[in-house]
């Protein structure tokens, strides 16, 4: 939606939504003793490795127990109600995993590397188990939307959308060597995901193999690598280094960065704030417009990244495959009447 | 070999000067590294359209560095800059794991180029400040550096953001070009 003062009706709607979210969170926190210990552990001023290990293994055991309970029940009945129940249980396990990841991320600055690694691999293992169980017990659920017509501010339909800020550590199972090889969002389809500044601050972020997803990165990062997106909406806060984009189709990307390079991309709209000429290569049917993403705090972030002013560089696109003086046929300016604006300022908690 | 290049060789053979070539995929950080070495201001670096030349003075030695743009569409032009090169610096963005293979392929093509046979090679495994950057030894494996037999080479982890590793890298280059006569095969 466009940025403007909120009408009373909208104000009320938002308050209601926040209330719902709050109560959902509350129930969730109360329900889960593991979560309580997580909260305790991560707010402990004298972070200790022992505390971390205790909470982490408690979570892990709990997830494992629940998972075997789910599996044990599976044969009994398979009517719709039972399925729904299983779905809910699996969903809550996924939430547990997210919390475990968040615990690891929060503790990463005091954890020895080998503990980081072993926790990461237990998380990966649990995820695989949950995935396998899901595949076994649940028929595939289908979601889809078209990014071009979707209204990102409208409340949406999916479970992940009611989560608060979540660190996005995803470990790569094909990881080569001891360094975590992936930080970002990978292999996701039909979902909406938000990352906040504490998840992004001053590190690189990757978006890999996503389709029909809406991704909001509401914070600053050092570098962004985008690979293989189909029908996605991606909106990011400032990237202090560069953005590298490869293999994107049918998507909309709103990005702010010092440098932006776009490779092998088709049918995609870019809304850019950039300090050097945007570069395209092996790319066609892409359109450009000025950056139009807002969320609470973006002004400060843009300021910090030296990207507060619009210098108009977004339209000075350079097509490296078109070295002639006439305009490249591969890109164009997005007509003002077709431009959108993603304003999340009144949606601090909504995803 | 044409007259022009013989003249260039004569010129280059001045003992206190060397020509260094910076190559690598786009976004690797070539220009940023040079800017940091030259004047420290890395905020305003823009992607390189063609090439840019940067002179660096080290211990009274003048390094004329040719920094060539690495976008795929302009990589075929790299070969225009091979003449009279004393050392090759190949830069890799260690957070760009997706393109490790692509970068390795470009490097192996380079190493087959006749005009730079035997030229010492320094691989800069850049952006080590990023948390999930590949460490230098994995880059070495990914680029298959152990297969190199016809020249001296070295790999150095570094960051143009923090400056780490760059001194070591440049020291190595300096050593190689100071006794360039011994390193080069006859051309
Ligand atoms: N975090 C981090 N960013 C870096 C580092 N080195 C370079 N960058 C960033 O990477 C982006 C690309 O750097 P450039 O120096 O333009 O890359 P290049 O190799 O010259 O690219 P081309 O000119 O296109 O061939 C810039 O946004 C730099 O700020 C580094 O060591 N760490
Ligand atoms: Mg450059």
TrEMBL record, chain A:
GO MF annotations in UniProt: tubulin binding
Gene Ontology biological-process annotations: post-chaperonin tubulin folding pathway; protein folding; tubulin complex assembly
Keyword annotations of the record: Acetylation, Chaperone, Coiled coil, Cytoplasm
Subcellular localization, as worded in the UniProt entry: Cytoplasm
A GO cellular-component term linked to this record: cytoplasm
Pfam families in UniProt: TBCC, TBCC_N
Positions of the C-CAP/cofactor C-like domain: 164-322
Coiled coil (UniProt feature): 83-136
InterPro entries xref list: C-CAP_CF_C-like, CAP/MinC_C, CARP_motif, TBCC, TBCC_N, TBCC_N_sf, Tubulin-bd_cofactor_C_dom
Main location: cytoplasm
Subunit structure comment from the entry: Supercomplex made of cofactors A to E. Cofactors A and D function by capturing and stabilizing tubulin in a quasi-native conformation. Cofactor E binds to the cofactor D-tubulin complex; interaction with cofactor C then causes the release of tubulin polypeptides that are committed to the native state.
Family: Belongs to the TBCC family.
Protein name (Swiss-Prot/TrEMBL): C-CAP/cofactor C-like domain-containing protein
Gene: LOC112290226
From TrEMBL, chain B:
Binding site for GTP: 24-31, 70, 126-129
Residues reported to bind Mg(2+): 31, 48
Superkingdom as given in the UniProt entry: Eukaryota
GO biological process: cilium assembly; protein transport
Transmembrane segments: none
Matching SMART domains: ARF, RAB, SAR
Subcellular location as annotated: Golgi apparatus
Molecular function via GO: GTP binding; GTPase activity; metal ion binding
Keywords assigned: Golgi apparatus, GTP-binding, Lipoprotein, Magnesium, Metal-binding, Myristate, Nucleotide-binding, Protein transport, Transport
InterPro entries: ARL2/3, P-loop_NTPase, Small_GTP-bd, Small_GTPase_ARF/SAR
Pfam families linked: Arf
Gene Ontology, cellular component aspect: cytoplasm; Golgi apparatus; microtubule cytoskeleton
Xref: PROSITE patterns: ARF
Keyword GTP-binding found: yes
Family: Belongs to the small GTPase superfamily. Arf family.
PANTHER family in the cross-refs: ADP-RIBOSYLATION FACTOR-LIKE PROTEIN 2-RELATED
Name of the protein in its database record: ADP-ribosylation factor-like protein 3
Source organism of the structure: Physcomitrium patens (Spreading-leaved earth moss)
């Amino acid at each position: 939606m466009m940025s403007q003062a909120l009408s009373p009706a909208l104000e009320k709607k938002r308050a209601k939504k926040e209330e719902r979210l709050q109560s959902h969170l509350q129930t969730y926190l109360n329900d889960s003793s593991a979560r309580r210990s997580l909260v305790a552990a991560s707010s402990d001023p004298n972070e200790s490795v022992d505390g971390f290990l205790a909470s982490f293994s408690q979570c892990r055991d709990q997830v494992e127990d629940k998972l075997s309970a789910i599996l044990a029940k599976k044969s009994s009945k398979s009517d719709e109600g039972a399925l729904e129940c299983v779905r809910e249980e699996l969903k809550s396990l996924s939430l547990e995993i997210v919390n475990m990841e968040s615990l690891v991320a929060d503790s990463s600055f005091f954890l020895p590397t080998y503990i980081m690694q072993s926790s990461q691999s237990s998380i990966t293992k649990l995820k695989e188990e949950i995935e396998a169980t899901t595949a076994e017990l649940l028929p595939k659920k289908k979601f889809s939307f078209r990014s071009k017509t979707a209204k990102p501010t409208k409340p949406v339909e999916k479970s992940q959308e009611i989560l608060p800020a979540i660190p996005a550590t995803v470990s790569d199972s094909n990881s080569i060597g001891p360094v975590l090889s992936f930080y970002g969002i990978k292999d996701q389809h039909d979902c909406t995901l938000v990352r906040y500044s504490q998840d992004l601050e001053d590190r690189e972020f990757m978006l890999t193999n996503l389709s029909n997803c809406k991704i909001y990165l509401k914070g600053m990062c050092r570098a962004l690598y985008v690979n293989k997106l189909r029908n996605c909406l991606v909106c990011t806060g400032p990237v202090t280094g560069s953005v590298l984009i490869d293999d994107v189709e049918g998507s909309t990307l709103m990005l702010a960065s010092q440098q932006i390079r776009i490779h092998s991309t088709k049918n995609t709209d870019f809304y850019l704030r950039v300090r050097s000429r945007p570069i395209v290569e092996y790319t066609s049917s892409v359109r450009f417009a000025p950056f139009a993403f807002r969320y609470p705090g973006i002004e400060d972030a843009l300021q910090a990244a030296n990207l507060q002013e619009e210098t108009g560089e977004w339209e000075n696109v350079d097509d490296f495959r078109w070295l002639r003086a006439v305009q490249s046929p591969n890109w164009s300016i997005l007509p003002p009447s077709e431009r959108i604006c993603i304003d999340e300022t009144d949606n601090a908690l909504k995803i | 070999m044409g007259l022009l290049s013989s003249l260039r060789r004569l010129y280059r053979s001045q003992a206190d000067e060397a020509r260094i070539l910076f190559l690598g995929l786009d976004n690797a950080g070539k220009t940023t590294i040079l800017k940091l070495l030259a004047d420290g201001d890395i905020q305003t670096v823009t992607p390189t359209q063609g090439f840019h030349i940067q002179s660096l003075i080290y211990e009274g030695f003048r390094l004329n560095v040719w920094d060539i743009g690495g976008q795929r569409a302009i990589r075929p032009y790299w070969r225009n800059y091979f003449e009279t090169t004393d050392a090759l610096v190949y830069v890799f963005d260690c957070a760009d794991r997706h393109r490790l293979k692509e970068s390795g392929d470009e490097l192996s093509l380079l190493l087959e180029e006749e005009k730079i046979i035997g030229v010492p090679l320094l691989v800069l495994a850049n952006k080590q400040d990023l948390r999930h950057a590949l460490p230098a030894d994995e880059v070495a494996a990914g680029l298959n550096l152990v297969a190199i037999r016809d020249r001296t080479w070295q790999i150095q982890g570094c960051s143009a953001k923090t400056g780490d590793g760059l001194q070591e890298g440049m020291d190595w280059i300096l050593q190689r070009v100071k006794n360039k006569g011994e390193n080069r095969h006859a051309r």
